[in-house]
Write a structure and sequence with these properties.
The strands form two sheets. The protein has an eight-stranded antiparallel beta sheet, with helices on one face. The two termini are 31 Å apart. With 354 residues, it is an alpha+beta fold. The chain has twelve helices and ten strands. This is Protein-arginine kinase. Its EC number is 2.7.14.1. It catalyses: L-arginyl-[protein] + ATP = N(omega)-phospho-L-arginyl-[protein] + ADP + H(+).
Amino acid sequence: MSLEHFLNNAVSSWMKQEGPDSDIVLSSRVRLARNLEEMQFPTVSSNEEAQQIVAIMKQHFGEKKFQDLGELEFLLMEELNALEKRVLVEKHLISPQLAEDSAFGACLLSPNEEVSIMINEEDHIRIQCLFPGLQLNEALQVANSLDDWIEEKIDYAFDEKRGYLTSCPTNVGTGLRASVMMHLPALVLTQQMNRIVPAINQLGLVVRGIYGEGSEALGNIFQISNQMTLGKSEEDIVQDLMGVVQQLISQERSAREALVKTSNIQLEDRVFRSYGLLAHSRIIETKEAAKCLSNVRLGIDLGYITDISRSILNELMILTQPGFLQQYAGGPLKPNERDVRRASLIRERMRLNR
């Protein structure tokens, strides 16, 4: 396995699988924040300490097999160029923060990209597990197994009263962030998201865009996650999130049914106009592409479009991002050049999918 394996394949192996409620829930993620005992957090540590963390993680876990996930590939951020790091961010394998503040950062990736362990991000270690559809409990099980495997070799910073100690106070306790990526076009079209988001926030959860904090909800894709990790068990955090997600799934399906009953021809027109733009445009920007892909995905889910697979949204939402476009081009592209290449790539991919 090599770096090219992660850069050249837009869709991870786990993304090609259908999970529970995958018509609405694109993915489930569990992330555990951990720090090494008696070591300063990355936000205040010296360069020597940061290098020591990287050396420890590489020694114990680089190129080592974990269960049936295979050997974990070790990638040092300082050895990657800006474009390569951007591609890994677009695939959700590393965070924007690790890509930007990566002088002494690294990550460990499983071949199927289901597991990513970020090193020297906001915390020394961030264990991430990704599953298709609504599979938070399954992701938590794998994350906990990885956590135990790592703890066999190193000691974590832990307090009997406070739990796991982390750089950010909101992660103290379990250190757990659970999230789901949801496609909610009908709730957006019916303008229900405006009232749903504040209600979710009041429950101690947070709604973000496709790349987490500070990002936009491109293509009507929202990330729902817990906000606090102290005072609840990991299982309780996951179950609370599951309850809200299941309600959102029910509301989205009801909104889709209502749109079909009351505005069927308008909805069908919206879907096929977007289909036409994707199939024939010669220039298309990121936001317009995301909007059209969302409409086409909705059309597939409602049965308007039958000759394109549902997975096209997952694939093209990544393939059409700036980093991937430039990776395929073999170098930097100006914005207008990216828009032309994006349109060309979408046309080609849609023809192949039919």
